[in-house]
Amino acid sequence: MNSRIYFDHSATTPLDPRVLTAMGPFLGGAFGNPSSQHHEGRVAREVVEIARAQVASLIGAEPDEIIFTASGTEADNLALMGAVRASGRPGHIVTSSIEHAAILETCRFLAASGTKVTHLPVDGDGKVGAESLLRALQSNVTLVSIMAANNVVGTLQPIEELAHLTKLHGVLFHSDAVQAAGKIPLDVNRLHVDLLSLSAHKLHGPKGVGALYVRKGTRLSPIVFGGGQERGLRSATENVAGIVGFGAAAEIAREELAKEATRLVQFRERIAHELFRALPQGYLFGHPVHRLPGHLSFGLRGQEREVGRVLAALDAAGVAVSAGSACSAHHSGEPSPVLLAMGYDAERARGLVRVSLGRFNTEQEVDRFLKILRLAVASISNAAAHTGDSALELPAVTFA
Ligand code: PLP
């Protein structure tokens, strides 16, 4: 079989066929508006509420603590802007230096209207330390926002510890769990979080639907105004099919999480082991253990500037991996801001390859990937040695 290998699940995931089946009726005949009082409307309302309970159950929340949004990005915007607006003051946000653009750009926007923003440093593994958070909490803070798992290097943050410290200071804690949800166990009560962002398309659900968990009693103002849907926090007619798909995806992820995490860790560790054995110039980015189950990011010492060509060669040979975040600037050869924040120099920070595995990946794909990657790197090294800059040609690979 000569099909493509998709190893870029941190960018997005393929829709699970079971999710598509659940969505089907709401893309067709069942088109009601959940706010309508008639039968069609009541059917739509019922399935939206079932999905709300399914999403809540994935993170140990109550259904009425889930606000559906149009994306993880919007959930992040609502958490930060909503908390600042509700406080009635420009306030102070404490976040990390390696957050997704959905957080960093929202902070930049808020800073332009007077909000103080503190970016906590991370260590070489990409972890936020409790001491720097404690120092930041000495001043008046409106909200702390720290991601549960990083999208570029896969490192997991000690959310339980950081949120606990934050709550001791009476400050709101938000976590962007877009990469973590459905991959590692998350329980909002054990984690002590007040706000938590999710996105369906990262867990084999549809694109264009997200959710914000809002703990009961949390003061939050809307950032979208209109008909008052979603408890007034997110006006707009609900994306019924998308929400139904999100619910189905959340339920499947919850049921299969433990088994799937074990399987993906095995694949990841096998790739890491064989990769670093075959390519001595390879080295790991991110925490070696506290990382997303299916996420491996690595560099190639001395070949940092060739990463773009390695990725293009892999793509041409049928493998989709990426150079970090799907929306990051370092596609264009710029150093990754996440790696710079982790202390890598500009040269190293240019050379990240991100492999992120998902539900439909198989052991055979892992075998084929390792073979193709070795050929791609060898071919680039040879091309560089012989001509300095010749066009890359991958030797033909026979697919099993
Ligand atoms: N937060 C993180 C950590 C992400 O990785 C992403 C997407 O890559 C987002 C937020 C944005 O989610 P969405 O694509 O649903 O807007």
Task: Give the helix/strand layout.
Elements: E1 5-6, H1 17-27, H2 39-58, E2 66-69, H3 72-87, E3 92-96, H4 101-112, E4 116-120, H5 130-136, E5 143-145, H6 159-168, E6 172-176, H7 188-191, E7 195-199, E8 210-214, H8 240-278, E9 282-285, E10 295-300, H9 307-316, E11 319-320, H10 337-341, E12 353-356, H11 363-387
Parallel strand pairs: 1-11, 3-4, 3-5, 5-6, 6-7
Antiparallel strand pairs: 2-8, 7-8, 9-10, 10-12
Helix pairs in contact: 1-8, 2-8, 3-4, 8-11, 9-11
The protein binds pyridoxal-5'-phosphate.
Describe the structure.
This protein is α/β, with parallel strands linked by helices and 400 residues long. It is built from eleven helices and twelve strands. Strands 2-8-7-6-5-3-4 form a seven-stranded mixed sheet, with helices on both faces. Strands 9-10-12 form a three-stranded antiparallel sheet, with helices on one face. Helix 6 links the parallel strand 5 (143-145) and strand 6 (172-176). Helix 9 crosses helix 11 (363-387). The N and C termini lie close together (6 Å). The relative contact order is 0.16. Mean pLDDT is 93; it is low at 388-400. Pyridoxal-5'-phosphate binds next to helix 3.
Task: Looking at this protein, list some descriptive labels.
single chain; alpha/beta; 7-stranded mixed sheet; 3-stranded antiparallel sheet; disordered C terminus; binds pyridoxal-5'-phosphate
Brief summary:
The chain is α/β, with parallel strands linked by helices and 400 residues long. The protein has helices at residues 17-27, 39-58, 72-87, 101-112, 130-136, 159-168, 188-191, 240-278, 307-316, 337-341, 363-387, and strands at residues 5-6, 66-69, 92-96, 116-120, 143-145, 172-176, 195-199, 210-214, 282-285, 295-300, 319-320, 353-356.
